[in-house]
Amino acid sequence: MIIVLLGYMGCGKSTIGKELAKTLSFSFVDLDNYIEKKEAMSVTNIFKSKGEIYFRKKEHEYLKELTSNSDKLILSLGGGTPCYANNMRVLDREGINSIYLSVSVKELSKRLFNEKEERPLIANIETEEELQSFIGIHLFERSSFYSQARTVIKTDGLTIKNIVENIIGSLY
Ligand SMILES: Nc1ncnc2c1ncn2[C@@H]1O[C@H](COP(=O)(O)OP(=O)(O)O)[C@@H](O)[C@H]1O
Ligand SMILES: O=C(O)C1=C[C@@H](OP(=O)(O)O)[C@@H](O)[C@H](O)C1
Ligand SMILES: [Mg+2]
């Protein structure tokens, strides 16, 4: 089985994925880190020097690679992965369990304002209010992709441990 975590930037895909993998003794891959290793460049620098379209092409390619020959894997996607190149269709097969970690706009803005530098799509937004209004629109645009996941978990107010338990509970 492959468990795929998806959702907006800052929803906890990387953090929860790591914990979930430890708890289940699965291997863990963060798609952004995988791309960075394969391309020998940070996501920020890929966006800067090669552009977003190049990033989306590589993201699609590596998603197919990772999902075609893995088992007992937790795969944390990037926030945009479900929204490009028919990637939700790549995930729509037996053996892949996709989980959308849903978080409110307010909580996402709070978390991301402190961590926007390493996220090229929001790095230049100056105030938390502007960030909140950007996320409100962007999340609305992306929601139709995210909600194609097999399972949706609302995680506001939950600890990382709670969320891991909820995910494991949803598997049976
Ligand atoms: N359940 C949670 N409660 C509070 N903070 C969280 C939770 N999950 C993640 N975070 C924090 O939110 C930030 C973004 O998490 P991250 O795992 O990088 O998100 P993503 O990979 O989805 O962009 C990190 O600082 C992380 O520690
Ligand atoms: O939402 C997006 O389009 C992106 C999210 C990022 O991943 P995180 O969701 O882990 O921040 C990373 O893939 C890139 O900066 C683009
Ligand atoms: Mg991440």
UniProtKB/TrEMBL annotation:
Pathway: Metabolic intermediate biosynthesis; chorismate biosynthesis; chorismate from D-erythrose 4-phosphate and phosphoenolpyruvate: step 5/7
Major subcellular site: cytoplasm
Keyword Cytoplasm assigned: yes
Residues annotated for Mg(2+) binding in this entry: 14
InterPro entries given in the database record: P-loop_NTPase (IPR027417), Shikimate/glucono_kinase (IPR031322), Shikimate_kinase/TSH1 (IPR000623)
Binding site for ATP: 10-15, 119
Source superkingdom: Bacteria
Subunit description: Monomer.
Its biological purpose: Catalyzes the specific phosphorylation of the 3-hydroxyl group of shikimic acid using ATP as a cosubstrate.
Protein name: Shikimate kinase
Organism name: Pseudofulvibacter geojedonensis
Gene behind this protein: aroK
